[in-house]
Amino acid sequence: MTKLCIFAGTTVLGYAFWYLGELLGLEFFGCFLLSSVGSVLGVWAGWKIARHFR
Fold it and tell me: What is the rounded CA–CA span in Å between residue 5 and residue 26?
């Protein structure tokens, strides 16, 4: 369950932050960095959600 929540959080938040970077007019590298931040937040959020439902 934990790995699934982390995978989902990483995927969703990574993509969302990439899209946010595109809306802000960032180029590829800027979107990549912003997506990396979103992915790290997705790992944290997925882990917290999995621990909540244990």
Answer: 29
CA distances from 15 to 8, 28, 52 (A): 11, 13, 24
**16-27 tens-digit pLDDT:** 999 999 999 999
The candidate with the shortest Cα–Cα distance to 3, out of 52, 54, 53, 50, is 50
Largest Cα separation within the chain, whole Å, is: 40
Neighbours of 6 (CB within 10 A): 19
pLDDT for 54? 85
Distance, in Å, from the CA atom of 46 to the CA atom of 19, rounded to the nearest integer, reads 20
